[in-house]
Amino acid sequence: MRPVTLETVFSHPVTQKYLRRSGIAHAVAVAEYAYIFAKRYDIDPDLATKAALLHDVGHYTWYRDGKWDFDLYKENDIHAIKGAERAHKLLIRVGENRHAAKEIAVAILLHTDSYLPSGELELRPLQKVVALADEADEEKDGNHHYKQIDDTVALERVRAIDRLIDQSEEALRTNVNMM
Ligand SMILES: [Fe+2]
């Protein structure tokens, strides 16, 4: 049994507060993509989906005259750094294993390179999966941050990911026992 489910992470008031800034629909969609990519690249789906769900919790709102100012955002944004720290604190608080919390936090830190000096970063597979999942849901002009989703639907989709992870862990255990 996993110490912490995606539902526990998702339902936490801290997650809800910050995900409302960057978009719950985007976070849930990225977690779903992360599950698919994790299975494809043989990465732990538990880590990948948690990192994906929380990847944008570090966002600050860059409004000028009631509108999101992309130039201001691009120049000053550190959401990956802030998100990594916030996610780590939250995960430890809800009882996540320390090693998992670190892996998830580093994947969040590296999910975008927009704030880093230019050059090639060699991402590790978990980090790559989270970055790919984010890209898969990206829309022009940051529109993915404005997609709407009903709260009940969001929770149901998160629970569905939890069930898939539990089933794949169960299948793994059965295979090991049969060997
Ligand atoms: Fe994102």
TrEMBL record:
CDD domains cross-referenced by the UniProt entry: HDc
Domain HD residue range list: 23-139
Domain of life: Bacteria
UniProt name for this protein: HD domain-containing protein
